[in-house]
Amino acid sequence: MNPIVDKLNWRYATKKFDSSKKISKEDLETLLEAARLTASSYGLQPYEIYVIKDTDVRKNLRKASYNQPQITDASYLIVLANKPTFNETMIDDYIANIMAIRGVSKDDLEGFSQTMKSTLLDLPDAHKNTWTSNQAYIVLGNLMTIAAEMEIDTCPMEGFDKAQYNEILGLTDKGLNAAVVLAVGYRSSEDDTQNYPKVRYSKEQIITHI
Ligand SMILES: Cc1cc2nc3c(=O)[nH]c(=O)nc-3n(C[C@H](O)[C@H](O)[C@H](O)COP(=O)(O)O)c2cc1C
User: Fold this and answer.
1) Which terminus of the chain, N or C, has fewer Cβ atoms within 10 Å?
2) What is the pLDDT of residues 164-180, one digit of tens each?
């Protein structure tokens, strides 16, 4: 099988990071570029990516994360923040970006713009939150896989209080919401979890070929 499968078996949701071992700036940049290049519905990227290194901020975030040690002990904490209250500005900004990057006219993009607006702007708030949060999770998956490929450890985390994160990081005022978190760094040799066999459904149980 392709060696990526070995990497995917190597990765695990790291419970105990080695706080003395930090990932390089270059590796961080690679991970963030992978995050930036992640696909999203329509290409809208309805999220922002916060990279938290600051020790004091992370102490506060740990308190809002059931005291999980990964929050303070990993090299970096990446908070994926979705845009739960987006309006037409988000779509207009995206159209302006396409015009600038691809050199196409606004008229040429009018149909695409209207399609996005008619599909998305009238969604109920809860649905907007779910949809933008779903997009942020694609970034999460991509980051975890790319990190594994680079033999960098991660822990995906939903075990935190979103309201407290939003307050600590000042997200709400920016129209953002902490969707999910990824702790990134290197595993501690004392983390027993790395030795546990993976628990997954068998192919027969989970995959259907038609
Ligand atoms: C979205 C998401 C949220 C998670 N939240 C936490 C968390 O808050 N704390 C934690 O220790 N593990 C968390 N996990 C890790 C899962 O428990 C773990 O990925 C799962 O048991 C499979 O094990 P493995 O990733 O080690 O293969 C989370 C995983 C995902 C994908």
Assistant:
1) C
2) 999 999 999 999 999 99
**pLDDT, tens only, 134-152:** 999 999 999 999 999 999 9
The tokens describing 85, both together, are 């209250």
117 CA to middle of ligand 1, Å? 35
Determine whether the shortest distance from the Cβ of 50 to ligand 1 is under 6 A: no
Whole-number pLDDT of residue 132: 98
How much is the mean pLDDT over the chain? 98
Domain segments of the chain as ranges: 3-87+125-206
Cα distances (Å, whole numbers) of residue 140 to 146, 150, 182, 183, 185: 10, 15, 7, 11, 15
Residue 178 CA to ligand 1 centre (angstroms): 17
CATH architecture of 3-87+125-206: 3-Layer(aba) Sandwich (3.40)
